[in-house]
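Structural biology now treats backbone shape like a language. To illustrate, our science desk offers a sequence and the tokens encoding its fold:
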Amino acid sequence: MAFLTVQVNDVEHHLDLDTRTSLLDLLRERLRLTGSKKGCDHGQCGSCTVLVDGRRVNSCLLLAVACDGSQVTTVEGLAGGDGLHPVQEAFIEQDAFQCGYCTPGQLCSVVGMLDEGGPSAITEDLSTEPVLDAAEIRERMSGNLCRCGAYVNIVAAIEQAAGVAAPVAQAEAVR
């Protein structure tokens, strides 16, 4: 057993838990925050993505004890008191989900990705800040899978949330 202090969605929790407990299991089973999903439980699908100290992580792979003293944000903590997070609004406006199972992980991943900056594996010019175009978005979101295949609308939502003009012609072609 280990004693852990962690802030989840701006609420401090003091917990005794088994050192083998994943962050995902802590969130879902102990704290009853069921927005983050257990998809593959192997870190391959991204359904469990949350933010730890502002960085996106697969919560199924991270031991909860590694988060001692950290700030964890789940999909339940993205929205402010006055309304939805701009990424959530963009997902709704662009119809960027179908069954919705992957959506919580997608949303947390987008929020983290938009704050990251820097080059990706496909960035051609490393001397300047990369342009967040559709190819960059797809590369940066490649760890989050959608079984329904709503990728075109997900990319459009990310472009909207990032302030980039959404590719209307491409989105309309899919609908």
Q: What stands out?
A: The two ends are 51 Å apart (CA to CA).
